[in-house]
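Task: complex structure prediction.
Instruction: return structure tokens for all chains below.
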Amino acid sequence: EAGVAQSPRYKIIEKRQSVAFWCNPISGHATLYWYQQILGQGPKLLIQFQNNGVVDDSQLPKDRFSAERLKGVDSTLKIQPAKLEDSAVYLCASSFGARGFGETQYFGPGTRLLVL
Amino acid sequence: AQKVTQAQTEISVVEKEDVTLDCVYETRDTTYYLFWYKQPPSGELVFLIRRNSFDEQNEISGRYSWNFQKSTSSFNFTITASQVVDSAVYFCALSGGTGNQFYFGTGTSLTVIP
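Output:
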């Protein structure tokens, strides 16, 4: 079974530019998550989708970050404009059920973003 | 509030030694789940174990074992006879409340020296 796919794996941009990340969850998984992992820290949830609806986006900096999950499958996370402090690894994860609670999340390889 | 503390930032052991990674959590929920993940240098978080709050039975899987103690709010992870391939950052995570947001600790970086 294929795992969570993410692209690109690496991205270098200058501040104030925009960038987009793509994630394709494990087939059949209803719930999709985007995390930000700053160097030396644990991942922090940015947004959680259940099918194509948002469950939790309380920690998403909505002035510059946006995310969508059209058709309830793959998802895109965008940053516009990027700031230096956005340099991090962006991890996508998915879990099977729509209920979500307590389910194991399976993570993709992440996208390493460097903002210069 | 949900919180996970991994007090050990970095640990180095010589191959074949046993090592225990500590995890202490805080939650007001009576139902919650605890997880351990391994993050090798490639960056992907690899799932190791899931435990719910009602199951305090310890678990062993090969060289890995987990000790869950609700009385001390701890969920510690032991690697027996460590190997170089065990070198990675290990994260403990807590899922509580109504959603499935994971609260991660800051991770413990384990280096196994050959």
